[in-house]
Fold this protein.
Amino acid sequence: MGCYDRRDLGLLLLRLGTGGVLAAHGAQKLFGWFGGHGLEGTGQFMESVGFAPGRRSATMAGLAEAGGGVLLALGLAT
């Protein structure tokens, strides 16, 4: 295994790990998976800190995180 192969493998592992964490955090906001509060709970929190309307802000934040995480893990738009 050459130097470039190890570097490529390392970058792949970093992309998969970071993208997976981002996608999971977005899924918490959107669907309530992995112990999240879903759109209702996240929307209420967003409104409590000043983002109105809270549900739309939670939807956009969740989609951005989940979508960005998937794109990063796949190596697209990097």
Q: What stands out?
A: The chain has a mean pLDDT of 94. The two ends are 25 Å apart (CA to CA). The chain has one domain: 16-74.
